[in-house]
Every structure is written in C-alpha cells, then in structure tokens.
Specification:
Elements lengths: L5 E6 L8 H15 L3 E6 L9 H8 L7 H19 L2 E5 L9 H10 L6 E4 L2 E4 L5 E7 L12 H11 L4 E7 L6 H17 L3
Helix pairs in contact: 1-6, 2-3
C-alpha cells in the first residue's frame, strides 16, 4: 500500500491565486509537496453552481429515478466528494466576506454534504463519514473579528466540517488586512510564519 500522503488544497477567494488566503493555502501545499505528498487543487469559485431546486432534487433522489441531466448533477457532486474522500489532509481557504464564508464555498459545501455519503442520520444524531483527516483553515479578514460575536465564520466552519466528520481542525487567522498596508503586511507575515511552523 502506498504511503504517499494525499492533500486537497481548496481555494475560495474571489481574487483567485492573488488572494491572501489562496497564497497561504499554496504555501502549505508546497510544504507538503516537498515531503512527497500528492496535491489535488480545487478552486471553488470556478464552475460550481449555487444550489437550486433542480439540483437539490437530483442530489436527493434515488439513482434509478434520475434522468440524464440529473445524473450529470450527481456525477459532478460525486467527483467533488471523491476528492475529499481520497484526501488525508485538507487545506481550506476561507476568507471572510460580510462576516461569513464566500457564497461559492457555501455552494461547494452544498454539493458535498450528502446524506448517506458524507454524513448519516442515526437515532443518536448525525454522524460524519469523512473521518480521520486533518484540516487546516486559512481565514483572512479585513478587520478584527476573532473571538467576537461578529465572527460568524468560525462557528459555521466548525459546525459544518464537524457535521461531515472533519473535527481535527487547525485555523490560521489573518486579521486587519483592510485597515492599512502596514497592518496587512504584519498580519500576512505572522500567518506565513505560523504556516511555516506547522508540524506536518
């Protein structure tokens, strides 16, 4: 059996590779790559539609009741889920937009949170099925929100990822980057140092 580690690097910045969260994800991915890990990259701002009634019906209907268009929807979701299932480690960019995650990242979660596949309901409550994976979250913010009521992002991510079984989280915060160029440079430098110091 191969011992090569599989890493899934997920970016969600509307600024693409130029976003500070994207840069941090790539910085950590490069560290894993230098150790021989296989890196899969997913930019969720590209080609992931928002959930609508048609897509929801396709994702929640029995396979033998799907038409060709619905099977295509399910196949797309299955491909995203397969990336998560194959990963030993997940590096997630989660910039804060208006107190929460980007809508594109929410759409991604809507496609991968599927009953019976990434979680299941039991009499004791829901059980996540994506277990034994390490998740690193890179979150960038224009102001200072950590540990305040305005940080709606951190509890959402902990709840959503935990619902899928992803409970081993490490979050790196980059705050105040909208305040001044000096504050941004200081915050980014501190985050880069934190990424470089991670034991992987």
């Amino acid at each position: 059996m191969s011992s090569t580690k599989n890493v899934l690097a997920i970016s969600s910045s509307i600024f693409g590779e130029h976003g500070e969260s994207s840069k941090l994800v790539e910085r950590l991915a490069k560290r894993f790559e230098a150790q021989g890990a296989k890196i899969a990259r997913r930019n969720v701002t590209q080609n992931i539609p928002h959930l609508d009634a048609t897509r929801f019906k396709a994702l929640s209907s029995p396979a033998d009741q799907l038409d060709d268009a619905q099977r295509s929807v399910v196949a797309f979701s299955n491909a995203l889920i397969a990336e998560l299932q194959a990963a030993d480690t997940i590096i997630l960019a989660a910039p804060m937009y208006n107190f929460s995650i980007p809508s594109q990242l929410k759409s991604y979660f809507d496609h991968v949170a599927r009953a019976g596949i990434t979680f299941k309901y039991t009499e004791q409550g829901p059980v996540g099925l994506l277990q034994n994976k390490k998740v690193y979250v890179m979150t960038t913010r224009g102001g200072f929100y950590k540990d305040t009521p305005n940080d709606l992002e951190t509890p959402y991510l902990k709840n959503l990822l935990g619902f899928l079984g992803l409970t081993n989280l490490e979050i790196i915060y980059v705050e105040g980057i909208g305040i001044s160029a000096e504050q941004k440079a200081q915050a980014v430098k501190a985050a880069e140092a934190e990424v470089d110091a991670l034991k992987i």
